[in-house]
Specification:
alpha/beta, seven-stranded mixed β-sheet, three-stranded antiparallel β-sheet, globular, binds pyridoxal-5'-phosphate
Length: 397
């Protein structure tokens, strides 16, 4: 090798890692394929397309996976949260406590019922609802707490259950970020009134759009089955085949039942849940090892077994948006989970929230960036994302 070639090489490797214009790292990729196609084919060969036997099969498989008595399939986590709130008879005049560091769906579901959202700030190290702050938010009107298992990390459900029991209110888990999480020997839906899952396109198990509710309560399950289909007294599928019998509508429900086509997509994924979670965990460990000592980067603390739905880093607030744009130019898919809900225009304008109301949620909301994470994400992709983050941090300093 000539001297000049050597020098060039040395110069090249000593530079900050370069952007590779041919490189693209997706934020998320699903892994649905042949198994799901076969499952859909099987469903198409039967009679039911809407809510039928495949939904029932999925519900019992997910209930068995969780170890929770009942699962009710619905059209989305948003609809599931609304149904649970309605099943608990929550409405105008009531208050529901939740975190401002979540997707808008959590708070919006409360607003749909006519109840009031009462935000409570998060723990600054985990981004999870801080039980020690929740109790002070409880008033005689409070009917429920909705906790969010942010990024796939389970919140302190035991502490929240104690608070809820002391005040005779309900505890609901927004478990949109996974079914695979565990903490203190608990799974979602085990000691809460209900846990609600999302099967939206980017979640850890998906049918494009869908959701489910887990509960150990027989009475709640019965009410949810009715509410998910217009408040009709009997499930449509259960009327199939028998002698004609009139159905009745006994309360005002919704059109929110999962379909057999969605269940057909979801059923084959249940067996892969733990393998996929383990693959995401490997990715997270690689990110963490590479980023632990990087200046201007802070990592979220984790307790228990996370579903590892999202991997987020905290960067300086003043440079966060610049960093998002620079990632885009480098071909890396990134997003923000989440800017604090109370500061979004509708919430500000309708309820008069101002900056500083929930400082920890705002701080994380202003600093967070979610990096690519999915089971098939390659280690070289992670290394590229890390190298880009380091480069961008230096260039924006
Ligand atoms: C995605 C998400 C929802 C909404 O789920 P959908 O199934 O899209 O309605 C609710 N809460 C959180 C925390 C989410 O991330």
């Amino acid at each position: 090798m000539t001297i000049s070639r050597l020098t060039r090489l040395r110069v090249h490797t000593s530079l900050a890692p370069m952007t590779d214009p041919s490189r693209k790292v997706e934020f998320y990729r699903h892994d649905l394929g042949e198994l799901e196609l076969a499952s859909i084919r099987e469903t198409l060969s039967g009679v039911f397309l809407a809510t039928g036997p495949r939904v029932a099969q999925f519900e019992s498989l997910l209930a068995a996976y969780l170890g929770v008595k009942h699962v009710v399939g619905v059209t989305s986590c948003t609809d599931g949260l609304l149904l649970v709130l309605r099943a608990l008879d929550i409405g105008p005049g009531d208050e529901v406590i939740t975190t401002p560091l979540t997707f808008i769906a959590t708070a919006n579901a409360v607003l749909y019922t006519g109840a009031k959202v009462v935000f409570s700030d998060v723990d600054p190290t985990t981004g999870l609802l801080d039980p020690s702050q929740v109790e002070a938010k409880i008033s005689p009107r409070t009917k429920a707490i909705i906790v969010v298992h942010l990024y796939g990390q389970m919140a302190d459900v035991r502490a929240l259950r104690d608070i809820a029991d002391r005040h005779g209110i309900a505890l609901i888990e927004d478990s949109a970020h996974g079914v695979e999480m565990r903490r203190d020997g608990l799974v979602p839906g085990q000691i809460s009134d209900a846990a609600v899952f999302s099967f939206y396109a980017t979640k850890t198990i998906t049918c494009g759009d869908g959701g489910a509710i887990a509960t150990n309560s027989d009475a709640l399950r019965q009410r949810l089955l009715r509410l998910r289909y217009h408040g009709i007294s009997k499930e449509m599928a259960s009327r199939y085949g028998g002698p004609y019998a009139h159905w009745d509508m006994v309360e005002l429900g919704y059109k929110a039942a999962m379909t057999d086509l969605d269940a057909a997509l979801l059923i084959p994924q249940i067996e892969r849940l733990d393998k996929r979670r383990a693959a995401r965990e490997q990715c997270v460990r690689r990110y963490e090892a590479a980023l632990r000592d990087v200046p201007d980067v802070e990592l979220i603390q984790c307790h228990g077994i996370s579903a590892h739905h999202l991997f987020t880093v905290l960067v300086p607030a003043a440079r966060r948006d610049q960093i998002l744009v620079a990632f885009g130019s480098a071909g890396v898919g990134v997003t923000v989970n989440y800017r604090a809900v109370h500061l979004l225009s509708y919430y500000r304008n309708t309820f008069g929230y101002a900056e500083g109301s929930y400082p920890h949620a705002e701080n994380i909301g202003n600093r967070t960036i979610s990096l690519p994470l999915w089971p098939g994400l390659g280690h070289e992709d992670i290394d590229y994302v890390v190298a880009q983050l380091k480069r961008i941090l230096v260039e924006t300093r």
